[in-house]
């Protein structure tokens, strides 16, 4: 095999890998139901409340624009299971940050995947590919 053919094969291989990465698809799942399950399962302790942007929360904002970006192994898992798992990781981080700052809520939460903000009053976005699922959230730490 010539050097030219090796280079062509290598380039084709890289483009194939890029198309696998591009296979990530966005899913929207019910945020409140996911939070309620995490509290019921004891993953979240319930001391911190979570409010999507556009839902009424009130209170005093202590810190604006915090971002959590979590990934999990999604291989062989349904989008719903993988996304639920990775959302829990994001919410645990928000809960711990809020509590450490004397807050009891995270408000104005938006999906923030690849820095693209998506607002919904009912759902969160989750990217799910063959091997990885990811959730990125942006929110404000508040005391209600």
Can you offer a commentary on this structure?
The protein is α+β, with helices and mostly antiparallel strands and 144 residues long. It has a single domain (23-143), classed as Hypothetical protein apc22750. Chain B (Translation Initiation Factor IF3, 2-Layer Sandwich), CATH 3.30.110. Helices cover 35% and strands 34% of the residues. It is built from three helices and six strands; from the N terminus they run αβαββαβββ. The protein has helices at 3-21, 31-40, 79-100, and strands spanning 25-30, 49-52, 60-73, 105-111, 123-128, 132-143. Strands 1, 2, 3, 4, 5 and 6 form a six-stranded mixed sheet that branches. A hairpin with a 3-residue loop joins strand 5 (123-128) and strand 6. The termini are far apart. Mean pLDDT is 89; it is low at 5-22.
Tell me the layout of helices and strands:
Layout: H1 3-21, E1 25-30, H2 31-40, E2 49-52, E3 60-73, H3 79-100, E4 105-111, E5 123-128, E6 132-143
Parallel strand pairs: 2-4
Antiparallel strand pairs: 1-5, 3-6, 4-6, 5-6
């Amino acid at each position: 095999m010539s050097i030219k053919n090796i280079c062509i094969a290598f380039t084709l291989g890289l483009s194939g890998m890029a198309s696998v990465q591009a296979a990530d698809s966005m899913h929207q799942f019910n945020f409140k139901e996911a939070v309620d399950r995490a509290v019921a399962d004891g993953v979240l302790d319930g001391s911190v409340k979570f409010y999507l942007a556009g839902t009424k929360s009130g209170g005093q904002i202590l810190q604006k624009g915090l971002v959590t970006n979590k990934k999990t192994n999604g291989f062989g898992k349904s989008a719903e299971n993988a996304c639920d798992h990775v959302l829990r990781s994001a919410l645990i981080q928000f809960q711990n940050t809020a509590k450490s700052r004397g807050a009891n809520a995270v408000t104005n939460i938006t999906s923030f995947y690849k820095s693209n903000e998506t607002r919904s009053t009912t759902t969160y976005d989750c990217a799910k590919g063959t091997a990885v699922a990811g959730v990125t959230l942006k929110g404000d730490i508040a005391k209600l």
